[in-house]
Amino acid sequence: MATDFVKVGKHQIDRKEYLAPGHTFCTGCGEALAIRLVCKAVGQDAILAMATGCDEVCTSPLPVTSWQLPWIHTLFENTGAEISGIEAGVKAMMRKGKVPERDIKFVAMGGDGATSDIGLQSLSGALERGHDFLYVCWDNEAYMNTGIQRSSATPYGASTSTAPAGKLSVGQTTQKKNLVEIFAAHGIPYVATASPSYPFDLMSKVKKGVDIKGPAYIHVLTLCPTGWRTVSNRTIEIGKLATETGIFPLYEIENGQYRLTVDPKTLKPVEEYLKAQGRFRHLSPSEIEKIQKKVNHDFAELKEKAARRQSE
């Protein structure tokens, strides 16, 4: 089947929608937009594996589905094992002549809970074994579909149902787990961050991730208006603020080499990002300053890593 593309600037964009309309994502959901963009970049010759989460619940309410690609759902903890078995099984059938030889893309998806918490072990094993697949994390920074419970990807100071802000609590008291560095430490060929607020950057990274031989990981910030307490028509704007303030920098690590793909000349104050979200409305000026100092430190460290690449 021929695929129809439209040219947008220097980019060739697939016209086909692999996530059909009629799903039940909330209005303004950053994850729904990210899924559409990722699937367009992956193309029609793909098999998807997905953990339980908003992405699964909102796209496959029995007896219907929004998926226009082969799609398999599994438990929170099994996605790494599932995509490993799919990739190994399909390639074994090709070797034995049971199915025609084809360049099939193997893509696994999961939210931050399925990735940073419950599914971390099986995903780490799949990366260590070197399976040829792309894993995409939808990071909305909490377990959103079950009630906005905190995950290890929830940022410091955010108020959630299990880490609520109050007179005796700032909300989440631990720092967000750095999954990008954790998976880069596995020595895999490609790791990146992305955001649907920067669609061409996201799709370019996805194309690179699925074309590289071996495992690849892309961490996508997906704003959740319900859990972040934002208005739905500001999703793209707030996603851009995450990058413009240095809270969520956009970069890639290819064979150990760092490169910033969006490099603001001057970072905006983190307060602009935090004040746009109800989950941070309780933060005092001193807490905001604490967050600002950490962002400044982390962004400077990232810039140093990228600069080392340019000088080599």
Detailed description of the structure:
By secondary structure, the protein is of the alpha/beta class. The protein has helices at 30-42, 54-59, 79-95, 112-117, 120-129, 179-184, 199-211, 225-228, 235-244, 270-274, 285-311, and strands at residues 5-8, 11-14, 46-50, 71-73, 105-111, 134-139, 165-166, 169-170, 190-194, 216-221, 250-254, 257-262. Helix 1 (30-42) packs across helix 7 (199-211) and helix 3 packs parallel to helix 5 (120-129). It is globular. The strands form three sheets. The chain has an eight-stranded mixed sheet with strand order 4-3-5-6-10-9-11-12, sandwiched between helices. The protein has one domain (5-311): Rossmann fold (3-Layer(aba) Sandwich), CATH 3.40.50. 38% of the residues lie in helices and 18% in strands. The mean pLDDT is 94. Helix 2 links the parallel strand 3 and strand 4 (71-73).
Q: Which secondary structure elements does this structure contain, and how are they paired or packed?
A:
Layout: E1 5-8, E2 11-14, H1 30-42, E3 46-50, H2 54-59, E4 71-73, H3 79-95, E5 105-111, H4 112-117, H5 120-129, E6 134-139, E7 165-166, E8 169-170, H6 179-184, E9 190-194, H7 199-211, E10 216-221, H8 225-228, H9 235-244, E11 250-254, E12 257-262, H10 270-274, H11 285-311
Parallel strand pairs: 3-4, 3-5, 5-6, 6-10, 9-10
Antiparallel strand pairs: 1-2, 7-8, 9-11, 11-12
Helix pairs in contact: 1-7, 3-5
